[in-house]
Amino acid sequence: MKLRVATFNIENLSSRWRFAEAQRGDVTAAMSLAEFARPIERETAERSVGLTLEDDKRQMTALAIAESRADLICLQEVDSLRVLEAFFANYVHRMSDIRYGHFKLVEGNDRRGIDVAFAARRSLLAADQVKVTSHREATFGEFGVYGPEIAAFGIRADDRVFNRDCLMVDLQVDGAPLTLFVCHLKSMNNGKDDGRAATMPLRRAEAQAVRALVRRRFGERWREAHWIVAGDLNDYREIIGPGGSVTARIPSGLDGLVEGFGVNPVADLPVHERWTHFHRAWSETEQRIREEHVQLDYVLLSPALAARGAAVTIVRRGLPYRTPLDPRDPDRSIPSLALKGDRYPRVGWDRPKASDHCLLVVEIDLPAPSSAP
Question: For the Endonuclease/exonuclease/phosphatase domain, which residue ranges apply (predicted)?
């Protein structure tokens, strides 16, 4: 049967307005223009601004999910199960003719409380056909991925390996088994010049731990089994620059998951389509504005699933207008970008937007139970 599997970093789906002492980034600009005599006044204004922005943003997030027509959705940056259910009930189900359920979330290790989550088309599965296993307690030592590079961070072998979690979701879809490994690997420290290299050992360890989990789950038959690793893996193996130029960026923290292991169907797309995230920032090292289109979001297929073919859809209509939708276009001027590209109503230059990531959908052909391993 055909099955549409999606991953989407929905960017801080949160019921909380402050992380420690830091403001929410989406309200900082507006709040900087105001002065308040008392803290309670600031708090009230901040919540008002935040809720207004959140409503616009979540309508667009829901439109991306509705457009995807996904059967299974792996999500990142979700605050809690309560807010996930409220989002689907009050946004997604007002825009989509698909009804979702089977919501799963386990509180992970991220200090901001952003977790990975799972949802599925309600009619696709019965409640007893969804089993979830968290690996938030798994350690570096447990998977044999501890070494000097990890110790240099002040980390011990018995510390937790997953920056958030690796949520294993075992499904029975019309009797056919399918296992998802939902991930959100260590960030690159917000795109700082040295952020990717500095944090790569942590992502590499997480990727190797996910690989070990797959091997543990399926043993020597892992190649023939039907599994998917999905999520925001926070690294890339190539950069698509202005004009469509491609620069290989290997080694990558993801090498353990894609070299002789999982299959990335996005790699088969034309070069200018192989991206899910756009980054534009000043580089102190290069003393210039650097623009990069990269793939951070993945639906990696087991060799057995990949052999049956896959179709890729990347939903981009929720991206802000500042994002060039075609890396090959040399004109990055404001007038050009503002008039190009199909966007959802009320998408802004920088915000509001659906997310800073694209939603990625991969349609697979899941074999009938008689032919499933």
Answer: 64-357
C-beta separation of 262 from 230 below 8 A: no
Band of residue 244 on the pLDDT scale cut at 50, 70, 90 = very high
DSSP codes joined into one string, 300-357: EEPHHHHHT-EEEEEE-TTS-TTS-S-TT-----HHHHHH-S---TT--SSSS-S-SS
Q: 161: which 2 tokens?
A: 């390996």
Concatenate the DSSP letters of all residues of 113-134 into one string.
Answer: --EEEEEEEGGG--GGGEEEE-
Q: How far is CA 218 from CA 38, 108, 144, 212, in A?
A: 59, 24, 18, 10
CB-count exposure of residue 285 (10 Å: 0-12, 13-18, 19+)? exposed
d(CA 250, CA 222): 25
User: Would you say domain 2-13+31-371 falls under CATH 3.60.10.10?
Assistant: yes
pLDDT for residue 143:
96
- The CA-atom distances, in angstroms, between 44 and each of 33, 233, 340 are 15, 36, 37
- Residue pLDDT, tens place only, 92-134: 999 999 999 999 999 999 998 999 999 999 999 999 999 999 9
Length of the chain: 373
Look up the pTM and report it.
Answer: 0.94
CA atoms in the 13 A half-sphere facing the CB of 150 = 21
Q: What is the C-alpha separation between 341 and 345, in angstroms, rounded? A: 12
Which of 221, 212, 226 is CA-nearest to residue 166?
Answer: 212
Q: Which residues have a Cβ under 8 Å from the Cβ of 85 and sit 6 or more positions away? A: 103
User: Both tokens of residue 287?
Assistant: 């003393």
- Residue 12: left if φ>0, alpha if ψ -120 to 50, beta else—which one? left
Query: Which two tokens mark 364?
Result: 């697979």
**DSSP assignment letter at 226:** -
User: How is the chain split into domains, by residue range?
Assistant: 2-13+31-371
